[in-house]
């Protein structure tokens, strides 16, 4: 009788362990899906400059060639007024930090909504669209 109870307990423990493992796997899958497709807004990609909001009102882009490209490896390339700037960046919680060799770090607010990005500095807000 005692041997049968031990076998039954082992079987029950094994089943509850499988259920727990299954639940953990489902939670991890859910976290991964949320992180990559909804929870974290990706800045990676190429963004075309659209225009800026100033105290005087909205101004459209005068130069439609201005753009910035953020790469997965943490580097970026910005083309502005025909010049190319290369540096590194970090993006977290709507804050973008850019670094260029020999320059000060730049901290700005960066909001991404789908294919639209708005970078807000002390003086103006710049709007970009994803390419």
Written description of the protein model:
- By secondary structure, this protein is of the alpha+beta class.
- It folds into two domains: 1-40; 45-130, Lipocalin, CATH 2.40.128.280.
- It has one helix at 2-39, and strands at residues 45-54, 57-60, 67-70, 75-80, 83-92, 95-99, 106-113, 116-120, 125-130.
- It has an eight-stranded antiparallel barrel.
- It is elongated, with a radius of gyration of 25 Å.
Q: What is the topology?
A:
Elements: H1 2-39, E1 45-54, E2 57-60, E3 67-70, E4 75-80, E5 83-92, E6 95-99, E7 106-113, E8 116-120, E9 125-130
Antiparallel strand pairs: 1-2, 1-3, 1-9, 3-4, 4-5, 5-6, 6-7, 7-8, 8-9
Defining key terms:
single chain, 131 residues, alpha+beta, Lipocalin, 2 domains, 8-stranded antiparallel beta barrel, 44% strand
In whole angstroms, the N-to-C terminal distance is 72 Å
- What's the CATH architecture of the largest domain? Beta Barrel
The ordered H/E elements are HEEEEEEEEE
Number of structurally distinct domains: 2
Q: At the third CATH level, what is the topology name of the largest domain?
A: Lipocalin
* Beta-strand percent range: 35-45%
Q: From the structure provided, what is the oligomeric state, counting identical versus distinct chains?
A: single chain
Radius of gyration: 25 Å
Quick overview of this protein structure:
By secondary structure, the protein is an alpha+beta fold.
């Amino acid at each position: 009788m005692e041997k049968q109870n031990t076998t039954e307990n082992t079987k029950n423990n094994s089943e509850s362990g499988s259920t727990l493992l299954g639940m953990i796997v489902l939670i991890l899958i859910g976290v991964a899906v949320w992180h990559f497709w909804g929870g974290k807004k990706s800045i990676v990609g190429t963004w075309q400059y659209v225009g800026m909001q100033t105290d005087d009102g909205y101004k459209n882009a005068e130069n439609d060639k201005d753009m910035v490209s953020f790469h997965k490896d943490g580097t970026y390339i910005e083309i502005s007024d025909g010049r190319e700037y290369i540096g590194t960046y970090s993006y977290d919680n709507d804050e973008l930090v850019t670094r260029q060799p020999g320059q000060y770090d730049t901290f700005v607010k960066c909001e991404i909504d789908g294919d639209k990005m708005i970078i807000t500095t002390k003086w103006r807000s710049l709007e970009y669209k994803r390419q």
